Amino acid sequence: MVQYQQNETLSDKVSEVFDLNYRVYGTRRLQAELKRQGITLSRRRIGRIMKEKGLVSKYTCKKYRIYAEKSNESIVSNALDREFEVGQKRKVLVTDLTYVRVKQRWNYLCIIVDISNREIVGRSTGRNKTAELVMQAISQIPMDCTSSNLI
After folding, report:
1. Which domain holds residue 125?
2. Per residue in 31-43, pLDDT tens?
3. Strand (E) positions, 72-133?
4. Which of 4, 52, 57, 80 is the most exposed, having the fewest neighbouring CB atoms within 10 Å of its CB?
């Protein structure tokens, strides 16, 4: 009977310390705080008490967040559907924007590639990633393929 009452008071004390500390303490910090108050308990016992009472630290709970789509990004359809053998020269052009390190600075490279023969039809480089960089690469495309699809 005495053991049951002692367990009940220890359980209440653990709950009280847990609540006073904004429900963020885990077993280590609860053990340290209880020790400061003169109560010696093992972390395992504190963990059992927390489990019995349903006490979970806010930091141990995984928070699921719903990621909303960004406002300026639209869903683009898969026009090629992995059919890279188009056969016709300069029918489909693809582009890539990447960065390379040159003399301790990042420089950006925009290339436009003809997918039928992997030929680079336009390119530009610059220190900043801007629309101007892309426009320079587009302006280098020969006039006979300006009616192509740009993906």
Report:
1. 92-150
2. 999 999 999 999 9
3. 92-102, 105-114, 119-126
4. 4
Please indicate, yes or no, if residue 41 is contained in any of the structural domains. yes
Tokens 């336009």, residue?
Answer: 122
Indicate the number of domains in the chain. Answer: 2
The reported pLDDT for the residue numbered 1 is: 41
pTM across the whole model: 0.45
Asked if the structure places residue 1 within a domain, the reply is: no
| Pair (96, 145) in one structural domain | yes
pLDDT classification of 75: cutoffs 50, 70, 90: confident
Task: Using CB atoms within 10 Å of the CB of residue 110, give its burial: 0 to 12 exposed, 13 to 18 middle, 19+ buried.
Answer: buried
Beta strands 149-150 and 105-114: pairing type? unpaired
Beta-bridge partner residues of 150: 93
More confident residue, 30 or 4: 30
Classify strands 92-102 and 149-150 as parallel, antiparallel or unpaired: parallel
Phi and psi angles of residue 106, each rounded to the nearest 5 degrees, phi first: -85, 130
The amino acid that residue 125 corresponds to is T
pLDDT value at residue 2: 47
